[in-house]
Each structure stands twice: as C-alpha cells, then as structure tokens.
From TrEMBL:
<keyword id="KW-1003">Cell membrane</keyword>
<keyword id="KW-0769">Symport</keyword>
<keyword id="KW-0813">Transport</keyword>
<feature type="transmembrane region" description="Helical">
    <location>
        <begin position="30"/>
        <end position="49"/>
    </location>
</feature>
<dbReference type="Pfam" id="PF13520">
    <property type="entry name" value="AA_permease_2"/>
</dbReference>
<dbReference type="InterPro" id="IPR002293">
    <property type="entry name" value="AA/rel_permease1"/>
</dbReference>
<dbReference type="InterPro" id="IPR044566">
    <property type="entry name" value="RMV1-like"/>
</dbReference>
<keyword id="KW-0472">Membrane</keyword>
<dbReference type="GO" id="GO:0005886">
    <property type="term" value="C:plasma membrane"/>
</dbReference>
<dbReference type="GO" id="GO:0015293">
    <property type="term" value="F:symporter activity"/>
</dbReference>
<keyword id="KW-0812">Transmembrane</keyword>
<feature type="transmembrane region" description="Helical">
    <location>
        <begin position="155"/>
        <end position="180"/>
    </location>
</feature>
<feature type="transmembrane region" description="Helical">
    <location>
        <begin position="314"/>
        <end position="332"/>
    </location>
</feature>
<feature type="transmembrane region" description="Helical">
    <location>
        <begin position="56"/>
        <end position="75"/>
    </location>
</feature>
<comment type="similarity">
    <text>Belongs to the amino acid-polyamine-organocation (APC) superfamily. Polyamine:cation symporter (PHS) (TC 2.A.3.12) family.</text>
</comment>
<dbReference type="GO" id="GO:0015203">
    <property type="term" value="F:polyamine transmembrane transporter activity"/>
</dbReference>
<keyword id="KW-1133">Transmembrane helix</keyword>
Length: 365
C-alpha cells in the first residue's frame, strides 16, 4: 500500500517543487487557498472516478479503455491522443526543473552548453532506468496492480491527502517565514527559502528532495504514458506528434486537449453508470446516477474556466490539435480496411468494449 501511495504521488505531484510561480503570480493567500480548495473541486472527484473505473477495468490502458468502452473506439482514440502528448510535454519539464534547484549550488548548470548537456544526460539516464523496469502503477497500469479492488481506492485517497499537504505546508512555511518579495518566487526559490530558514544543510536537503522528486515524476510519467500507448495500440489506435510549433506554444496549448480528455473521461464514467449499471465494480462510488453527474460538475466548471481564459493564439493551436485527432482516426480505419495496416484487439478487453468496437466497425463497412 505505502509504495503504491508514493508512486501515485510522483505521478500527479511530487511535492511543491515548481509551485513557486503560483506565489509569484497570485500571491501567497490565493496560492494557499488554491491548494486547499482545488482538491475538493478536481482532485477528489477525479480520484473517486479513477478508483471506480480502474477497478471496473483492471487492465492496462486506463482512460483509453474506459472511454472506448463507454463511447466507442473513435472517442477512445481521441482521449488517448489528447492526453498522451500532454504527458510527453510534461516529461520534458522535469529535467529542467531538476537543474533549476541545483543551479544555486552548481552555477555552471544555469545556462549554456553545460545545462543542455546535463538535461540530455539526465533524460537518457532516467529513460534507461525506466527501461530496466522501474514501472509506475496508476490508472493506466491497473492491470499490473495486485488486488486493485482493495489497493487502488485506498491508495488514491491517501495520495490526495499527501499531495495537498506536501504543497500547502511548505508554501505556508516559506511565505510566512521570510519577507515577501513575489518577484523572487521562481522555480528553485524554495531551496533559497530553506537556506534562509535553516541554513545550508536545509538548503541542500531541499535540493536533494527536489532532485529526487523530479526523477520520480519523470519515471512515473514515462511509465504511465507507455502503458497508455499500449492501451491505444490494443484498441487499434496510433499516435502522431505535432511538429513545427515552438515549445512554449505547445505547452500553452496542451491545456485545451487535456481538458477535452478530462471531459470525455467524466462523460464515460456517467455513461457506464447508465449503460451498464449491473457491471462488476469492485469499488463503486456510493452515489446513484444523479450523484454521479453532480460529482463531475465542479471539475467541468473549472475546465470551462480554463478554456475561457485561453488566448486567441493558444485557442487556434489547440483547435488544430483537436482537428488533427478527429481526422486521424478515420484515416487509420481506412488504412485498416484496405489492409495497409492491421490492428488487433486485446483478448483482455471487457466484452461490452469489444461489442462497441465491432458495432462501430460494422457501421464503417
């Protein structure tokens, strides 16, 4: 249980490292309130839904399998294509954040060739560790969890508490212990705060913790993305990465596809409750159909707020990313029918998911 809690923790948070920018932009009060309120709006509903759906589908693939079973392979492909690139983009940030916490101790890592070389070496090293078998267990890896009925719901519950406290308490201590200068609150500043409060040993401790955290998040994200790709492959899906866009544009634009993926996940959850109410659910949220809908309302409202705040440039890029996915799946299906490529369906998929896929294929033919 404890190892699983920590693995989920690294998959979704990893601690307060990188949260300094929230204080910079919003100030300490709103930053702290956000870490108190946000779990109730998004984290807890998402954890409950993940617990139910993961135990209902105890196989690799996660949300791709859920959405495919509820809405058909077309939308399963879309949710996978929306979420997987977001994970890849996030993974690119962890080596950078790793160095941001070390640059005060090793200034040569701040800029230039040493920084680029360090990022490359870190990426290759962590990828090798992942390849050697340091896999992570969350929703997309439910098939790898022993006794998911018992372990997943409890682990997700404890992880929400752990994630909230691990962000709230350090920011509370840091913003309250030293005079506030919001301009200084950038990535890596928590190490400087620790040095001011406790001296050099505490600064080093935070730097080591940040390094360990970012390594854990990198490995966790890569493992989860790999198993999500496995789920997409078993559902006759494929992935294309966007190219020709700046990294900053892609980072900004990933919010829209990710939000779209979350909405599909919530719709799939409600759809399965309505369409297959008697299906086996080792863990089931103690709420009826109306309660299931109400659970999804707060995070969807938050998602709508994120979409409304998008700039025009980011909205255009996001729209193009979504359209690519909408056109890609029919093209792959056409290639499959022409036998230019061939996809297979995993024998581990639930029967009602296979029925949904076969029905969609028959309509296309």
């Amino acid at each position: 249980m404890i190892p699983l809690v920590f693995l989920i923790f690294y998959e979704v948070s990893g601690g307060p490292f990188g949260a300094e920018g929230i204080v910079n932009v919003a100030g300490p009060l709103l930053a702290l309130l956000g870490f108190i309120i946000f779990p109730f709006i998004s984290c807890i509903p998402e954890a409950l839904i993940t617990a139910e759906m993961s135990t209902m589908f105890p196989i690799n693939g996660g949300v791709v399998v859920w959405v495919s079973s509820a809405l058909g392979p077309f939308w399963g492909f879309q949710v996978g294509r929306m979420k997987w690139p977001c994970g890849v983009i996030d993974n690119a940030l962890y080596p950078v954040l790793f160095l941001d916490y070390l640059k005060s101790a090793i200034p040569v890592l701040s800029t230039g060739l040493p920084r680029v070389a360090s990022i490359l070496i870190l990426t290759l090293l962590l990828t090798y560790l992942n390849y050697r078998g340091l896999t992570i267990v969350v929703s997309t890896l439910a098939g790898e969890v022993a006794n998911p009925k018992q372990t997943l719901p409890k682990a997700l519950c404890y992880s929400v508490i752990f994630v909230t406290l691990s962000n709230f308490l350090p920011l509370l201590s840091g913003t309250g212990a030293i005079p506030l200068n919001r301009e200084l609150w950038t990535d890596g500043f928590l190490a400087e705060v620790a040095g001011t409060i406790g001296g050099g040993w505490l600064r080093v401790w935070v730097q080591v913790a940040a390094a360990t955290s970012n390594m854990g998040m990198f490995i966790a994200e890569m493992s989860s993305d790999s198993f999500q790709l496995l789920g997409m492959a078993e559902l006759a899906s494929g992935v294309l990465l966007l190219s020709g866009l700046s990294f900053q544009d892609i980072v900004a634009a990933e919010n829209m596809p990710y939000c779209g993926g979350m909405v599909l996940e919530f719709v799939a959850f409600v759809r399965m409750r309505v369409k297959h109410p008697a299906a086996s659910r080792p863990y089931k949220i103690p709420a009826g159909t109306v309660g299931s809908v109400l659970i999804c309302v707060p995070p969807i409202v938050l998602i709508c707020l994120v979409v409304v705040l998008l700039t025009l440039k980011v909205a255009v890029v996001s729209f193009v990313m979504v359209m690519v996915g909408l056109l890609m799946k029919p093209c792959l299906d056409h290639m499959d029918r022409k036998r230019r490529v061939q996809f297979s369906v995993s024998c581990d998929l639930p029967e009602f998911q296979k029925e949904s896929q076969e029905m969609e294929e028959s309509l296309l033919r």
